[in-house]
Every structure is written in C-alpha cells, then in structure tokens.
Sequence to fold (866 residues):
Amino acid sequence: MKQAQFRVLYRQFLFRMVDLEVLSASALGDTNKLLGQFAALLVFLSIWMSLGAFGFASSRMAPQAALLFTLVAEHFLVATTMLVIGLFAVLSWDSTFPNRRDVMVLSPLPVRGRTMFLAKVAAVATSLGLTIALLHGAMGLVWPMAFEAQAVGQEAPAMTFEATTSPVQAAELQSVLNRDLPAAVADGPGLTIGVVTHGDRRIFSYGKAQPDARLEAGSLTKTFTALILARMADQGHLRLSEPVRLLLPAGTARRPIGKEIRLVDLATHHAGLPGNGSAADLTRYLTRYGVAAPPEPAYHFSNLGFLLLSQALEERAGATYVDLLQTDVAGPLGLRDTTAESGAIRSTAADLLTYLDCNLHPEKAGALAGAIRETQKLRAEGAGDSRVGLAWLHRGDSDTYFQNSSTREFSSFAFFNPTKDFAALIFLNQSPELPASMILLDDHIRQRLAGQPAVSLKMTYIPASKGFTGLLRWYGAYWFTMLASALFIYCGVLTVQGAAAQLLPRRLFLRVSGLLQMAAFCLFLFVYFLQPLFGSMESLDSPETRAQLLWLPSYWFLGLFHQLNGSMYAPLAPLAHRAWVGLAVVVCGTAVAYTLSYVRTLRQIVEEPDITPGLRTVNWLPPFGNRVQTAIGQFAVRSLMRSRQHRVILAFYLGIGFALMTFLLKAPTMRTDADAPLLAASVVMLAMAMIGTRVVFAFPLDLRANWIFQVVGLDAGAACLTATRRALLLLSAAPVWIVTAVVCFRAWPWQQAAGHLILLALLAMILCDFCFLQFRKIPFACSYLPGKSQVHMVFLCAVGLLYGVMACVQFERLMLQEARSTVALLAPFALVAVGVRVVSLLMRSEDRLRFEEAPTPAVQELGLQR
Fold:
C-alpha cells in the first residue's frame, strides 16, 4: 500500500509544473507535449553550446591562451547551468512545498506524512536531474574532451602578494626588482624601466635592452595628442567643446540632427568610434555614419578616434602633426629625442621620464603648465572603475594616472601619482620567452613605490590531467560540478522560500512569497548578464575583482571544477572552499525547510485562511469603452495585477527581452553606431512584452470560475475583443513606449525621437492585431491547452527577432536623420497597420466568445475501450 501511494504521489508531484486545475478538459496528453517542448529547448541549447568545443579542441593555441579560454568556457557553462536551474526553481515555485490542495486532498486519506515527504523529494530530485541531463546531454560529452585535448601543464602567475614595509625610492627600486623579477628576465629579449620619486630619477634595463634606445611610445602618443589639444585650447585656437566637424575640411561630414561629436569626446574615448582602423577606415566611417554623438556616451577605447582628433588639430593649426609635436610639446619640455613617425611617437626613456615628471609637477613645464593641468581634469567614466581625463586614465583608489599600450614590438606602461610624487615607465619587448607574470609588472612597481603589498611576480605550476585517466577525471569533474552548482542554486531557493514560510504568518507569507519569487527571477537574470567577466589572468590582480568573485557563486564552482580535475590554480583555491561551504549550507537549509514544512506548515494551512477581505480602494483604472468593454478591460488588468502565476509567466518573456537587450548593448557590432542599441532594444522589449501579455491572457485564473461568464450570456464578441485589445496595449505597449519616449527625448532632438516613437506605435498596432486574429476569448477566462504555447519556438523566434532587428536599425537610424526620409520610413508601416486592421475587422464574422480552448469535435468519443 505504501509503495502504491508513493508511486501515485510521485507521479502527481512530478507532473505538477502545470496547474491541472486550469487545463482544458480535453488536454489529455497535452501536458506531456508542453514538457516535451521544454525538453526540446534544453536539447537545442545543449547542442548549440557544444559546437564551440569542436573548434576549441582542434585549435592550436598557446598554453596560456588555452588555459584562459578554458577558464572562460568553464565559467560560462557553470553560470548558464545556474541560470537555467534558477529559472526552473522560479517556475516551479508553487509546487515545491505542500500547499492547500495537498492538505485538502490527502489529509482525509490514509497517507502518512513521511510518504508524501519522500514522494515530494523524489519528484523534485527527478525533475532536477532530468533538467541537468537534457541541458548537458551534448555539452557533457564534448566539452570535457576539448578541455583534456588542450590541457597542458604550465606555469602561471602565482597571484600572491608580498609585503612592502615602506615606499621604495627610485635609488632602491633596481635592487628590489633584482630580487623580485624572475630569472628569465635577466637573459630575456629586453626590459627598460624608468622611475622618478621626489625628483630623483633612475633608468635601468635587463636582458638585451639598452637604457638609451629609442622606443615606440604606443598609446602614450595619445597623451601627447591630448596635450597638443589642451595647448591649442589654452592659446584660444579652439574650444574643447567645439564640434570636430568644424575642424575638418569642408564636405567631410554633414551636420547631424542632434548632438555631434566634440573634441573632448574624442580625447576621452566617448565618441562611440570603432577601436581600430586606418585613415581609409576613418574616411569610410565618416562617409557612412557622419559625426553624430552617441545618445548616452560610454567609454570605448578608440585608436580611430585619436586619429580623427590628430587630423582635426592639423587642419585647424595648418601644420603637420610632426610640427605640432615639436613646437607645442617636445620643444618647450626639452624632449630632444622625441619625434613622430607615421602618427606614432618614438622617444627615449629619458625623454619620457622628463615628460612624466612634468605631469607630476606642471610648474616645471613653463608655458605648458596650464595645458598639462587641463589634461588631468577628470571628465567622464573610463575603463572599469577608472575615470578619464584628456587621454589619461585615473584610478581613484590609488590616485594614479596611467596609460598602457601593446604594439608588435613593445608592451609599454606609464603612470604617475601626484599625491605621492612618483612616476614610472616600463618598456617590455614582446616575446613568448618571458614569464606570463610580466603582465603584472606595472602593478608590482606601482605598489612597491606606494608602500603597498605588491603582487608577486613569481610563477606557480598548474598541472594538467592527460591521457585516458585524465579524460575520465575531466568527465567526473564536469558532471559533479554541474550537478553541484545546480543543487546549490535550487537548494538556495528552497532554503529562502522555506525560511520565509516558517518565520512569517501563513497569510503574510502568501503575500511575500510572490515578491520573493519575482525578486529571485530578476536576481538570476541580472547576475548572469551583468556579472564581471574573467577576461585575463591579470583580472585576478585587482582587489575589487577578487572581492566580487568571492561573492559570486558561479566563480565558486569554477574553483571547484579545477580542484576536482587536478588543475587547481592558486587564486581559485579560496573560491573552491566557498563552493563546498555554500553547498553544505544550502543542502542543510533545504533539509530543515522540508522537514519543518511537514511538521508546521501543514498545520498552518489547515488552521489559517489563505486570503482575507481586501480594503476598498479608489478605482484607478480608465474606462475601456462602454460598460461591457470597461468591465472586460478592467477585469484583464486587475487579474494580471493580482495573479502571481501570470506575473511570473509574463516575467519569463520580459526576461528573454532583457537578455536580448543586454546582448544588444554589449554587442561589438552595435558600438559602431551610437543610436543602434537604443533603437533595437526598444523594439525587442516591445515585441516580447506584447507577446508575453498575449500568452498570459490565454491562461485562465481558475477554470471552474469560467461558468460565471458563460451564464451571464455575453454575446458581444467584437466588443470584448476591442476591450481586450486596449488592455493589451495598456499593459504591454504603453510602458515600453513611455520609457522609450523619456530616453529618446533626453538623448535625441525631438524630430528624431518623435519619428522613432511613431514607428514604435505603428509596430505595436500591427503586432496587436496579429496577436488577436484568432482570439475570441475573455482574457483569463478560457480553458488552457499547454502544448499550444510552443515555448521552444519562443526562444528560436526571439533569436530570429534579434538578428532581424539588428539588421534593420542601421537603416532606421539613417532614415531618421531628415524629415523627408522619416516620412518615407513611416508610410509603409502605416499602410501595413491599416491593412492588418482591416483584415482583423473582416475576420470578426464569428463573434461568439469561446470558453473552451479545444473546439467541440464533430464525432464524440465514448471511450468504451477503457
């Protein structure tokens, strides 16, 4: 008997992802169809994300690059697993713990609480295991092989810190570095270091480098260009806020509608121009995109931007860049060995150290003092946590200005700290023979000069599991890590949910539970898309990055992965420890929450009512037409506002839109066009909001309550459809349109903003009519066939929508530049909107409302074979 009870309960709990109380009476196997769609989506994701493993396994990568790619890929797989399981936990929120239906149905039956408890746990474990198996069915086969194929035992920076008892002076730095630098540097291809502290200068070199050799300044050239700009502004030849268009030859670029790129935007990398390119690339860019400024300028390092700036300065001064460098900078500062060749500066360590010393003490620069101070004024956000002046980046935590560069010949680092009066420059010959820890040399020297703990330049050996036994270890580590990360996120949700159920009164918990559910949904999405990326080995050197990684569980399990596969990297060891601790805490928390739910929650369900009478409030909803239309429209709005289940379904669609929007804002192809991300994001969010709202309209609140609408005898199908259409526009299109309007009118001229908003409104009208071509229902009042939702197709269509929008926004941006082209853009959409509306009206010949999703069959099946 107990076994039979367990099997029945297990089956019911396992398939209760869909509320059986709202299904159509003819659904039968339709629930299995829905589950099959979810399974198909997971399998598609697994196959799609496994394709990269084949290219990685067959590629020829340097050991350090392969290690870095392995870390990035492993973290991506772990984070994606945690996102999928987190969304699974949110969607199954109401079926995790016993609810009123469990109590009312099972309490009169001779079912022991222990049996129900075990059936619930078994059902949860099965659904969780199936989700992991489907998600990693393909990935779990190919990625471990790829990791094993590229695994190579190698040395990497140890990422430990060495104490600095007091600030190191210039005269002492060489002896300190003789002890700190790896032995390979002494016989390496070359390293030149210059340092000045409190006016004391030292220049020394290692390997084949010569202290007086002429060096390629790389991106340090940009600071010279910025100083020329500040010098010309100080002399009144130009203004920093002046549009760059005015400094270019006539006809180079026409005046855009709205904001345009200024000189200061170029000097602070806030012009939205591409990162790299030649003079020909710059000409093509200006011809295609002009000089329109981004609506919300963000820092984007651009060599092309400084190329444009140098050309503009040459045009305004009527002199070449070489002449400007000599007359405005090199001559006044006494830099005798500094020249410009093909737009890049070559100089000696002595000259560059003099240049840095003048930045420490502008008063030494004579007539250039004011211009130097102008370059150091912080004007905008820079890379990471830094801010930017004119070309110089600034770290606020250490009050250090810096500029780094990498060319085919050199890696160069330059920085100065006015507060502590020190500066240094480093020129390192590019060579694979040098230890990887050399990428940390600038931080090491800066920390020594500041008297701070210095990141070690020592190397540590990272072993690699190879061969057949190594491959087995990779497989074991992969699957255990993915299961452990999934268990952590799912049990974490259960622990929070169970703690709230035990600490709060039953009625208060039911109100708070919906908020917790939405908060968990938003948290998983925000953390996944906005968490810091592990992009390089030196990323672990930043104290801020390390602090963030210690609080991000996806990185904990990255450390656990490497601990299990035998390739532990020292900086990841604390993360692996946190993974074990966190896993133990949430598993114990889940066990306690489940136990208490069957000891205390069942009694609370019986003894306390779930709902209490609400208070009368002011009717804040607008009329939707006549009385019938107003009743239908307000019923739709209030139902969505009150139903947690429907809000979660809508949030799922909005989450997809948010994910696509984040991709658009971060996509490198979008950075070449300042306005494209905003245009595309508004269209994507509009589409997903309207489609999601249309889906929840078809999902009933309570199937048994639909008889109320049937006995009323409503026969005004057209009126109901009109009210439903207005409710859809109010709930989905209006919020997106209003937010877009606020952003557009702040960022663009009113003509351009109005054009995009009209286009967005036309798209909303077209999509709304398409949504209701076959809709003859009252929202939330028709039976439900879950298989019709086609959830696997939603994802594929969303990806198709993304690429379609990305291809179209470039054209829209060009058309919005002028009034005539804007009208030409809007006219076809207006005609389509009218056409779809006419078709929708003609299809209203069948005006009777439907309350059953499945049509009545022509032949009734008696089911006698059963």
Remarks:
- The first helix runs from residue 2 to 14.
